[in-house]
Amino acid sequence: MDWEERQRERAQSAVPFLLTRRGDKEGVTLAGLHRVAVAASGGAEGGLDGVVRDGEMGEEVVLVVREGEGEVVRTLSGRALSVNGDVADELIDDVLAGTVRLPGGPASSAAAVLGPLPGWVGHPRLRYARALVVDGLGWGELGEHRVHYDDVLGLTVELARRWPVR
Questions:
Q1: Measured CA distances, 51 to 14, 47, 109, 136, 156 (Å)
Q2: What SS3 string covers 64-121?
């Protein structure tokens, strides 16, 4: 079974857990369904009543696009920032819409080398964000791993292969 087939199978198994507003069976986003996280077990520390994740929790990164060296940085929707990633106030939500969570494990550990873009360092909402830069085709590097962003599949990570030393 190839990767895409496994992803389709995972998506199909999630259908019974689809989140929609009452009476809104055609909703395509989770807009308006956000809730403040509530501690599990009647207020006990350390857990959440519900988490929409099916794997190990990973680090969050903000995806941005740079076509080539010295080119302007763009949001995933294509809106231009600057070469350094400076963000006008009206674009902050568009930049943050590129936030994705890396899968746990090696890819998430590799995110430790990422930091904010130079134009984000003084920004109150972006100064601690980790920017993951992909090219115009959606390809980028995360340490020794390769990543690819696609509008349909989202972010995929190709882990570097490590061969045993003999």
A1: 13, 9, 21, 32, 21
A2: EEECCCCCCEECCCCCECCCCCCCCHHHHHHHHCCEEECCCCHHHHHHHHCCCCHHHC
Question: Which amino acid is present at 116?
Answer: P
Structure confidence by residue, pLDDT tens digits, 21-38: 444 555 555 554 444 333
Q: What is the C-alpha to C-alpha distance for residues 19 and 139, in angstroms, rounded to an integer?
A: 30
Contact 100, 58 (CB under 8 A): no
Backbone φ, ψ for residue 15 (5° rounding): -55, -40
**What residues pair up with 60 in beta bridges, in sequence order?**
101
Would you state the structure tokens that stand for residue 76, as one six-digit string?
């995933």
Is residue 150 within a helix (H) or strand (E), and if so which, with residue range?
strand 145-150
pTM of the model: 0.65
Is pLDDT above 90 for 64?
A: yes
Cβ 64 vs Cβ 117: under 8 Å: yes
Contact present, 102 and 155 (Cβ < 8 Å): yes
